[in-house]
Amino acid sequence: MKNELIKYDASKGIFHLNAKNTSYIMQIYEGRYLAHLYWGKKIERYNGAKSLRFVDRIFSANPQSDDRCFSLESTPCEYPAFGNTDFRVPAFQLMFENGTTVTDLRYESHRIAAGKPSLEGLPSTYVEGDEEAQTLEIIMKDSVKPISVVLRYTVFSDFDAISRSAKIINESGEAVRITRAFSVNVDFRDGEFDLLHLAGSWSRERDVLKKPLDMGIYNIESRRGASSHQQNPFIALMRKNAGEFNGEVYGFSFVYSGNFLAQVEVDQFHSTRVGMGINPFNFSWLLNDGESFQAPEVVMVYSESGLNAMSSTYHDLYRKRLCRGLYRDRVRPVLINNWEATYFDFDKDKILDIAKKAKPLGIELMVLDDGWFGKRNDDCSSLGDWYVNEDKLEGGLGALGREIESLDMAFGLWFEPEMVSPDSDLYREHPDWCLHVPGRPRSEGRNQLILDLSRPEVCDRIFDMMKEVLSSAPVSYVKWDMNRHMTEVGSTALPAERQQETAHRYMLGLYGLMERITTEFPEILFESCSGGGGRFDPGMLYYMPQTWTSDDTDAVERLKIQYGTSLVYPVSSMGAHVSAVPNHQVHRETSLKMRGDVAMAGNFGYELDITKMPRYELDEVRDQVSSYKEIRELVQFGDFYRLLSPFEGNDTAWIFVSKDKREAVFFYYKIQARAHEPFKSVRLAGLDENLEYELLDAGVAFGGDELMHIGLNIPELKGDYQSYTVRLRVK
Ligand code: DGJ
User: Which pTM was predicted?
Assistant: First the structure.
């Protein structure tokens, strides 16, 4: 261990956790209550500043009859239970066999260990050596019944991140029902924050929204059975003066892909409680005596210098210690996908034509999207029938894959494994294998139902079918799609008292299935997708290192989507494609250059009918692909800085800087042209003030200090939807 990351002062009952530049401090108060003292910039020695304070408050209740000043209501709590003097929203609630719901969690013991254990069956950040982190487990026990909660805190030595989770253990001799089990609770001692979250819709994912907090409750949540397009499982509390490069920011990111709740409560004393975890809405879990329940992980990131530094921590941590597999550190191939080129209307010749046209342009991977299986010629049938449609693809996937390989291109394939079409052999064979409530209609979405992944036999069947397909052809990339949300959430395999476990059991089944498939095929690059970015979350990134960012491929819309996504997720995780104009989602016309420059700020690819492009456009594509290959390492693995926000003005800018700061690539985009435009310059970020950078192809050089503090001139860009990019290299 480089240094001690977690210290415990037994005389004062104080836990002092130190991440890279961050401290998190707690205290066992009165020998039993676990109170939160501080989270923020690193403190070397803690001698009790801003210690807990209590006064006799009218209408507060007191757990100790001899002390009218002490109340949990005015105690910053680490993991509040329900029913004894804290009237704020609890992190934890149970129902006992007698119908009562009161618990009283008290400190019991703790242990500190090197490293970070994994969360069984759940995605989580990890370490590659015990020296990378320390983990504190605090065991809290109910004062009446032997029910414990193990609060786990991991502090990373190289990141300003602390991960937390909670595990509930029932040794009470009776079955209890968990009705709320947040993964995290943090009580800040004031309410001077703005709340930032990422909200949107299909094709409009992750708009950056910010609102001032005031007394009341704010819920950011999904009840849709997936993390969703509508709200991302992430929030940040920002100090009022905080921006991209200044001010304190506290990020909370939930490593989970299903229903979640991020709840912020500003109470009567203007303290702020943040809770995050599985959404208690329509959730309960029956925990028998001797069983335990593990709540997923939340990754908390503190930044003293604004959002950009917070994002940078998430990017590095998620890229290096959440994503796994061969492609974690490997540059991603430039791909072409046939979806917007053909939709369902293709055959083997068409796919090969696209591949043959793409190969000489430098494109490396041909992805065959929806429509290759069963008898699927539109979205009305065949999900679940994962065998090739030979009417469309003569000779099967093996023949197609081999022909693509013979072009020296890799071959990729689309699946939607979690779904079943009512018009499918699988459904006819197993009509009870979908989520449904007997006796009630089964609502379809995109003409499909959701398979009940809470059932192991369903997961096994999907695994077997996928394995057979993936073993039958040289597939080196899989796009794992998911195109509807849950309705009539119920499982016929579960007893009445466990119906409210279905949605979470589904997620556990899904995670298990993805673990098996990705382990079975370690050479395959997996990209997750849910109607675009409807499940762009850390849970999915644990299994699949990239996600299709959005079905909206319009360059202008993509600026917002990629900007918002970058708040939490690394650029290496964002699929970004050039598509045709007029754009299929918003019908806008933008230049090929603009479309290319936007997509190059992600995992680059094309999604249009390249066989119909005129020669001069193909030449431009060839140039784009070759330019991207020169910068892709920088884009995918460098440091990313947002410079101008598409949510705040007519232009957007960002820069990628190599870890050694010797290389960078800057992108600027303008939306609307205006008459008599003012001159524009942009201050860069992330460079070394003391180094001199040459602007490649421009024949000029400037100091890093000039570029960051004075700025870089943007040349005159005539017309709407223009972009300007420049590479910088230390002279
Ligand atoms: C939704 C995805 O986001 C699209 O890219 C495409 O794969 C379609 N599904 C296919 O049905």
Answer: 0.98
